[in-house]
Amino acid sequence: MFGTPWADGTASISQCAINPGETFIYRFKVPKAGTYFYHGHYGMQRSAGLYGSLIVDVAKGEKEPFQYDGEFNLLLSDWWHKASEEQEVALSSKPFRWIGEPQTLLINGRGQYNCSLAAKFNKSSDVPTCQFSGNEQCAPQTLHVQPNKTYRLRLASTTALASLNFAIGNHKIKVVEADGNYVQPFVVDEMDIYSGESYSILFKTDQDPSQNYWISLSVRGRLPKTPEARTILNYSPSSPSNLPNSPPPVAPIWNDYNHSKTFSNKILSQIGSPKPPPSFDRRIILLNTQNHIDGYIKWSINNVSLLLPTTPYLGSIKFGLKGAFDHKKPPQTYPIDYNVMMPAPNTNATYGNGIYMLDFNSTVDVILQNANALAVNVSEIHPWHLHGHDFWVLAYGDGKFTKEDEKKFNLKNPPLRNTAVIFPYGWTALRFVANNPGVWAFHCHIEPHLHMGMGVVFAEGVHLIGKVPNDAFSCGLTGKILNHKG
Ligand SMILES: O=C1O[C@H]([C@@H](O)CO)C(O)=C1O
User: Fold this and answer.
1) Could you tell me what percent of the chain has a pLDDT over 70?
2) Which residue(s) pair with 104 in the sheet?
3) How does it assemble (predicted)?
4) What is the residue with the minimal CA distance to atom 5 of ligand 1?
């Protein structure tokens, strides 16, 4: 979002939530071709299915740095049989009730949960084979291909919780784009995709065309209780109703984090991509912990759990309102003697809505520091997503980040992205230039985790923003002012 920070869609941050019956028009520039998606950013509405793909084509006369004969778009998500409002209530209850694992993984909104397409390959389970004729609304969306061609597959994950692994049986995949940025192409058998991420991959239809092949989606990073979602790669002239003869791809073990780290470390920027500034002006270290507040379970960042204000920051800063949020600076780091391998010794976190004011055009380093959650020996994956910017992913590391770890930074060809994971008990170092006037959310893209406070807010150059459409600010204190003015 460049030049229109009020069109970023984050309730309480860039605008007021859109009430039932209201209309809000998002008008914005699309400066960069790539694979994106949009979604509701209020409460847990993304979990409820409020999302869709957003693909930006290359401008007329421009070319992609790779070629392909056809293209498919797969939006990946997860699904619960309980309504998202009920989930919100459970997460905000005392005692805390966790939402559990999703009932289904979805590929373009279609999945299987009480049957398996590949049941005949699974000898140990009594799950029946799915009986789809192909016309049902829930039948998997088959990918029809011609032999000996190259296809582009656009993948984006809007999952509420699940980290995913994606594979096409018997086919290699070449990764060429990540989060709307071209990457140095590399070939893998399968790949991870975390919530908030998008990719383009290329694959060649170089297999026996008398057969069909599996496309599989499985859960990573959490003990999977959710069956794999499948669809079929259908080679012409083979019939789309022929289930593949080969067994489906074997998913990597859910907690094989080294496997995931290997994949993440393969992602490098394409030659000629913008390089990061060689040094930073400000470093913010963000400790990710799970804590209690008054008996509620929360996620907190440097011991502060984000509780959004009723007046959107963008409006309250623009209008110069003092009382709309806490103007104290949130903590830049965490206590030096904190042991990230153990549950928080002081599990009493606080709520907060302060924001990190960044100097316009300064270079900011963020070190995301993972830690133990509330239970011993538990540390989870968190995909962090930054609004309004791409950042360079300088390094992933294990344990507690120290100054020595700066040596590990890749300043030569780090990938530009808008989402990056922290692995259990690890850290991830990001760098970005605060060159986009606005107020920007930076948060764990796992929907229940954001709901439980796992986010921070950055602001820069707000004084440089011109006239903001009033209908973004018709709530809270800005709403009162606008009402007065009539
Ligand atoms: O936020 C979370 O809460 C639960 C668990 O930690 C507490 O029940 C879980 O698995 C999460 O990811």
Assistant:
1) 100
2) 79
3) Dimer.
4) 98
